[in-house]
Amino acid sequence: MESLKGKIVLIVGATGGIGAQAAKLISGSGAIVYITGRNTVKLQALATELGIGGDRVFEMDIANEASVNAAIAQVLEKTPVIDILINAAGIGVIQTMDTLSAIDFERTLQTNLFGSFYLVKAVLPAMKVQKKGLIINIPGVLGKVPMAGAAAYSASKYGLVGMMQSIREELKRTEIRITNLFLGGVDSSFWDTIDLRVQRDKMIVAEEAAKAIWFLCQQPASGVVSEMVLQPFNHQAI
Q1: What is the rounded CA–CA span in Å between residue 61 and residue 65?
Q2: Which of 217, 224, 219, 227 is nearest to 175 (CA)?
Q3: What is the pLDDT of residue 145?
Q4: Domain 8-235 carries which CATH code?
Q5: Is the pLDDT assigned to residue 52 strictly greater than 90?
């Protein structure tokens, strides 16, 4: 496994359960971690816990292109190199078609798909200059196997998978690697606003999901893990 010591790692959506846990593991392995999120209070609290200064903390709304561009520009002012980009931001809308509104459908795509587009487009030029890097997205299992009520969420995640596969083809002559992590059933705040009976006690805990990200960050540069699937033993969809 490749050492993370001294690597520049940008974690988007660091205030979420998975993102925060990943930040702790990766920072603890010696990486230089930059964190972004919408909630500045949570960001500052995480920065304190990680022992990093405010110069590595940036407010970002991934659904807003101007916000993404501004935050990435600020990061690149601090460091010209981003070795690893981890996109842990996203929202979940689980509603059947008879209750799903166009507004919620558009909001889901705006955050999970368009936001990922804004992010990769902003970060990729710097990676192309250095001709290497690793981009990790988290489409979730519903980006592979849809379920009833997940039309909006699956549409956004299937779109993300297709987009990153196309970008991977564009980058074949570089050493920029792309990994998709398909997580299924993580006990996180994702479920707090979803009106669906689920067995959260049987889900993967956020710390274990973060360990998968931490593991992927340490893969040798000579190869690439194109995708990884991690799901609860009793809730396997794939």
Answers
A1: 8
A2: 224
A3: 87
A4: 3.40.50.720
A5: yes
